[in-house]
Amino acid sequence: MDKVIVYLDDPAYACQQMPARDGGPTHWVLVACAPRMTHRVSKWVSHSSRENWRARWADKLFQQVVPGLRARGDDVTAVLARGPLPELTRVLMAEHGTEQVLDVRRPKGDDAGFGSRWAPHTLLGVGAALILALD
Questions:
Q1: What secondary structure letter does DSSP report for 110?
Q2: CB-side neighbour CA atoms (13 Å) of 2
Q3: Dist CA 117 CA 23 (whole Å)
Q4: Is the dihedral of CA 94, 78, 36, 43 positive or negative?
Q5: Which residues pair with 28 in a beta bridge?
Q6: Which fold has domain 2-134?
Q7: pLDDT tens figures, 97-135
Q8: Chain segment 65-75, per-residue pLDDT in tens
């Protein structure tokens, strides 16, 4: 049975990027990479609250991805990344005896269109600056 370690953070994007494995069944080691909290948020939220949020976030992610893989007859192991990925990768490779690692996390700027990157108040400020510059 082939074993593949997969890093993911967006279920829809991951399902599009994950290849269908030909041959026999595959054992997928899914590693959920939760979004980072900003410094402002982490300053006001306790460590246990952050960990609980990450666990709930990962559960939702796995609920969307795991059933499709199991329906194909594949095995799935779900892991929540809690530290640096290089260290976790070494541990998982040793534990599962595989060299195959697939990173299907959504690229950072992939969904950043004009509207999502610029907040309305930013556009108003730029517009006001242009009007003042023209006067």
A1: T
A2: 15
A3: 43
A4: negative
A5: 4, 76
A6: Rossmann fold (3.40.50)
A7: 888 898 989 887 655 444 445 555 555 556 656 665 565
A8: 999 889 888 89
78 burial (CB, 10 Å; 0-12 / 13-18 / 19+) is middle
Measure the CA–CA gap between 59 and 64, rounded to whole angstroms: 9
What is the per-residue DSSP string for 45-75?
S-HHHHHHHHHHHHHHHHHHHHHHHHHTT-E
Query: Which phi and psi angles does 14 have, rounded to 5°?
Result: -65, -45
**Residue ranges covered by each domain of the chain:** 2-134
Give yes or no for a contact between 86 and 5, defined as CB atoms under 8 angstroms apart.
Answer: no
The CA-CA-CA angle for residues 34, 16, 109, to 5°, reads: 55
Q: Residue with structure tokens 């829809």?
A: 12
Amino acid making up residue 104:
V
Helix (H) or strand (E) holding 7: strand 2-8
What sign for the dihedral angle of Cα 21, 9, 11, 47? positive
